[in-house]
Design brief:
globular; 16-stranded antiparallel barrel; 1 helix; Porin; 6% helix
Length: 338
């Protein structure tokens, strides 16, 4: 089946899923159980050829809630923001002669620079859960070796979150779970833009302490013959946990097609191991990326100390080769969650 025929049918499939989920729904409900939560995250970093920085590493504020409808179905919602003031980028508004990248310890708090991480609602019953809005990309669950903090996501090809998304996930049986999602950005000319802008599909299967993850992601926003740009990504991963030991491996291949039809293929292998001793977890990771014969690699070491009462601190050493940016770094962080 060609893609032009497949994508509209996938849109119809999501409409059918939504109809099934809302059929016979009772709109009377209990008062939602709402929670306010957040995180304060400060990071001290020294990076090769850069001066030392003490930055906001992503303060977060959010509300989330869940409840039950009269028919027994569950509903949920989540709205989460991240504040990027004092993050090393300098003054935010460009006033008084400061440009956006100019460091300024006294003026970088002018604007909070708020980013929306999550803004979604959902319904769940015995058939599964449907969530709508900006939310976690289930494809990212295959990034099993991404266990670090400051050096997180170095070579991952697909976003950890999706906007304009409708995602259906089957119930978690303890052994298997599957997901199917669609991106419906809209707002453009239907003669120039795809009706379905992207989709994600995959799942996981558990055998004993071993978990297998498989996922595929595709995005294509333009329908014009003159613009052939699109993006495809597939990922396979294994994760194994035994007591205090955790082992993970993730292989990923993406193909980015430019407007003229030329393609760039990127392959990635990511490996990680962690081991916990009382309140300290130690980690080591290695990743390599090959993009059109340009090979980037990264070695990570880390230690993470649980201070109790939702406090923790960590230290990480990242060693990156020239193709990966040559940004060797030593980072220490402190986090308080509430």
């Amino acid at each position: 089946m060609n893609q032009s025929a497949f994508l509209p049918r996938l849109s119809i499939l999501f409409l059918l899923i939504a109809l099934v989920l809302i059929s016979n729904i009772s709109f009377a409900m209990q008062t939602a159980d709402t929670h306010f939560y957040g995180r304060i995250h400060i990071r001290l970093a020294t990076i090769k050829n850069q001066d030392t920085s003490l930055n906001n590493a992503g303060h977060r504020l959010g509300i989330k809630g869940e409840g039950e409808l009269n028919n027994g179905w569950e509903f949920l919602y989540k709205l989460e923001s991240e504040l990027h003031n004092d993050d090393g980028l300098g003054k935010k508004d460009g006033a008084d002669g400061h440009n956006l990248a100019e460091p300024s310890a006294t003026s970088s708090t002018d604007l909070a620079d708020i980013v929306i991480r999550h803004a979604h609602i959902g319904l769940a019953n015995s058939y599964g859960m449907l969530t709508l809005g900006r939310q976690n990309n289930p494809f990212a669950s295959s990034y099993t070796a991404d266990v670090f903090e400051a050096n997180s996501g170095s070579f991952e090809q697909t976003s950890f979150r999706l906007g304009h998304a409708a995602i259906f996930q089957t119930p978690n049986t303890g052994k298997a779970r599957a997901y199917l999602g669609a991106i419906l950005e809209g707002g453009g000319d239907e003669d120039e833009n795809e009706q379905l802008d992207g989709y994600v599909i995959g799942g996981q299967y558990k055998v004993g302490e071993l978990v297998l993850h498989l996922g595929a992601f595709h995005a294509d926003f333009k329908s014009l013959d003159s613009d052939q740009s699109e993006f495809t990504d597939v990922s396979a991963a294994l994760a194994y946990r035994s007591g205090n030991l955790y082992l993970a491996a993730n292989g990923e291949q993406s193909i980015l097609q430019a407007a003229d039809g030329s393609k760039t293929t990127t392959d990635k292998l990511d490996l990680a191991m962690t081991y916990s001793l009382k309140t300290v977890t130690y980690g080591i990771g290695y990743a390599i990326q090959d993009s059109e014969d340009v090979k980037s690699d990264r070695i990570l070491f880390g230690a993470y100390l649980d201070l109790s009462s939702n406090n923790d601190c960590y230290i990480e050493l990242g060693l990156l080769n020239k193709a990966a940016g040559d940004n060797d770094n030593l980072v220490a962080g402190y986090r308080i969650t509430f």
